[in-house]
Design brief:
alpha/beta; eight-stranded parallel barrel; about 45% helix; TIM Barrel; two-stranded antiparallel sheet
């Protein structure tokens, strides 16, 4: 089932599995095995509510070789629960290196899509889109994103040029909730792309801010990570994560 079909069957929300060891209940342990147990419990809590999870690779790389083992085991478990899995690695390179990155993440059944940075141009994008689904970084949610992404290049902003690459390579886009005016512009420029929308919740974006990312109530999936998975640091973490997800879903749907 394609991502939009999964969204239609559930909600336009993706849960970011970016676990911080210091916030995982001690009863689960203290090492990578605790992260895997935590992730599985979160997945079980939200699998019937949301279509997808997004795993930020940095939090797994931080734990070394065993952390990457947790990454793949988590992704596999999410797939077993029939969820769409996004690897958030923001990879980019050219030639054989790009092909190797693409094969590493999009050449396996555990991952459906990968985030990719665009700034090496088409030969840093095509090896990924040849292999699988890509979310290309277009307008990110961080405060300094405008230092490069908002630069005037000719008669257009740099992010508008990147939007053209999204259309050229038939991929999807990362567009932050913290810049709703630019999101509205980019929705017009990329009418067929699915937007992966960071910036909701902890970064300051609200439901009204994400609305411009949608087209007739479709075409976007909004991420929340710590606001859901660390809604509680106690033994009730999975229950509270489910409640936080339900609250977010209701909030997003209220504006669509």
């Amino acid at each position: 089932m394609k991502l939009q079909d999964k969204i239609n069957a559930t909600a336009p929300v993706v849960v970011g599995l970016d676990p911080r060891l210091e916030k995982i209940p001690k009863r689960l342990g203290t090492g990578p095995e605790a992260v895997l147990a935590f992730n599985k419990a979160i997945i079980d809590a939200v699998a019937d509510l949301v279509p997808a999870v997004k795993l930020q690779l940095a939090f797994y790389e931080l734990l070394g070789v065993s952390g990457m083992d947790v990454f793949w085991k988590t992704a596999k478990y999410a797939k077993e629960r029939e969820m769409y899995v996004i690897a958030d690695g923001k990879r980019n390179d050219i030639g054989s290196t790009a092909k190797a990155y693409a094969e590493a993440y999009l050449g396996r059944d555990e991952v459906d899509a990968l985030t990719v940075t665009p700034y090496l141009g088409s030969d840093g994008i095509k090896p990924f889109t040849d292999r699988g689904e890509v979310f290309l970084l277009v307008k990110t949610s961080n405060p300094s994103s405008g230092e490069l992404q908002d630069l005037d290049v000719g008669e257009k902003k740099l992010y508008a040029h990147v939007a053209e690459l999204v259309n050229k390579h038939n991929c999807n886009a990362v567009v932050g909730a913290t810049y709703p005016e630019q999101a509205a512009e980019l929705r017009e420029l990329m009418p067929d792309a699915i937007f992966l929308v960071p910036g909701y919740g902890a970064q300051g974006g609200g439901a009204k801010d994400v609305l411009p990312c949608f087209k007739n109530g479709q075409g976007a999936i909004v991420n929340s990570s710590r606001g859901i998975i660390h809604a509680s640091t106690g033994d009730d973490f999975a229950e509270k994560a489910r409640e936080a997800a339900e609250k977010m879903i209701a909030d997003i749907k209220s504006v669509l």
